[in-house]
Specification:
This is Putative membrane protein. It contains 7 helices and no strands. The chain is mainly α. The radius of gyration is 21 Å and the shape is flat. The termini are far apart.
């Protein structure tokens, strides 16, 4: 029994190490072809590996949506860093893309909510939508797509932010009522 258990662990470990080596070799090969620094490729690789490990924890642990949230976030951030390391995303605009953190957070809430409830619930979808919209709006200001500054937007349109906060609370309230009604049946 113990030898079968140790064989399974050895097989799983060799499979995992093999995948790591394949991915790391491919990352460094692409990095060397693009003439990038090894540190930026290694950083992107480590972030992707953290996402893969968290995804494995999310799959192994039943209903652990927090691991899936961080797994999705780290995978998106790692691939973004990898594209930046390969100069697919030019370095001169890299510093302007900081609002993608909000977009990645919103997109990572979607599989986390699905994993937890098995369906789309407003408890996860409403904040996910808010994070994505906020990130896209901040990207528009970061890339100077709009003709006015973020400060000017806040000074003129602050009541709209209050209205959006109210809309978010109404959506969460309706979702809580619907889920409470489903549990009563």
């Amino acid at each position: 029994m113990a030898s079968m258990f140790s064989r399974r662990i050895a097989a799983w470990l060799s499979f995992f190490i093999g995948l790591l080596l394949m991915f790391l070799g491919s990352a460094f090969l692409l990095g060397s072809l693009a003439g990038t620094s090894k540190f930026s490729v290694l950083l992107a690789f480590l972030v992707v590996i953290a996402g893969i490990l968290l995804a494995m924890f999310a799959i192994k642990m039943n209903k652990s949506s927090i691991y899936l949230f961080f797994a999705a976030f780290f995978l998106m951030a790692g691939f973004f860093l990898f594209l930046s390391a390969l100069n697919v995303i030019p370095r001169d605009i890299f510093y302007k893309t900081w609002p993608l953190i909000s977009v990645f957070s919103g997109l990572a809430l979607v599989p986390a909510g699905w994993r937890r409830y098995g369906t789309f619930r407003s408890r996860f979808m409403a904040p996910a939508l808010v994070f994505v919209i906020l990130g896209c709006a901040l990207l528009a200001f970061s890339f100077d797509i709009v003709g006015f500054s973020f400060k000017q937007f806040i000074l003129n349109w602050w009541p709209l932010l209050i209205a959006f906060a109210g809309l978010l609370l109404v959506l969460i309230s309706l979702g809580a009522r619907n889920s409470a009604g489903d549990q009563d049946r």
